[in-house]
């Protein structure tokens, strides 16, 4: 059976062969567990986090625009009223 393929097993099969089934799940196989001929649960692999190397991250950001902090601050100051009394003191 191929990795990622969904296999149906009974509750009894899960009980009898839990260790081997969990090894299969860790390798990428998924299972539907039935109880009284009705689907009861799905066993699927946990998604593992993937990490990007520093070199790949640097390449990805190499073409990003450079942040101009003073210009950003000026834009924010222009958009937000920085003067006067606090909002709760205004009438």
In short:
This protein has 91 residues and is α+β, with helices and mostly antiparallel strands. The protein is built from four helices and three strands. It has a domain of 38 residues: YefM-like fold, CATH 3.40.1620.
How is the largest sheet built, in terms of strand order?
1-2-3
Per the CATH scheme, the topology name of the domain at 6-43 is YefM-like fold
Q: How much of the residues is beta strand, in percent?
A: 15-25%
- The H-and-E topology, N to C, reads as EHHEEHH
Instruction: Kindly state the percentage of residues in helix.
Output: 25-40%
Strands, total number: 3
**Which shape, going by the Cα principal axes?**
elongated
How big is the Rg?
28 Å
Structural category = alpha+beta
Output the number of helix runs. 4
Would you identify the CATH architecture of the domain at 6-43? 3-Layer(aba) Sandwich
Termini separation comes to: 73 Å
Mean pLDDT equals 87
Enumerate the spans where pLDDT stays under 50 for 5 or more consecutive residues: none
Largest sheet descriptor: 3 strands, mixed
CATH class placement of the domain at 6-43: Alpha Beta
């Amino acid at each position: 059976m191929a990795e990622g393929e969904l296999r149906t097993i009974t509750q009894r099969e899960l009980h009898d062969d839990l260790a081997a089934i969990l090894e299969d799940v860790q390798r990428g196989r998924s299972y539907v567990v039935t109880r009284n001929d009705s689907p009861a649960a799905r066993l699927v692999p946990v998604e593992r986090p993937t990490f990007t190397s520093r070199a790949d991250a640097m390449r990805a950001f190499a073409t990003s625009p450079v942040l101009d902090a003073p210009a950003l601050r000026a834009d924010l100051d222009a958009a937000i009223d920085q003067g006067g009394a606090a909002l709760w003191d205004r009438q």
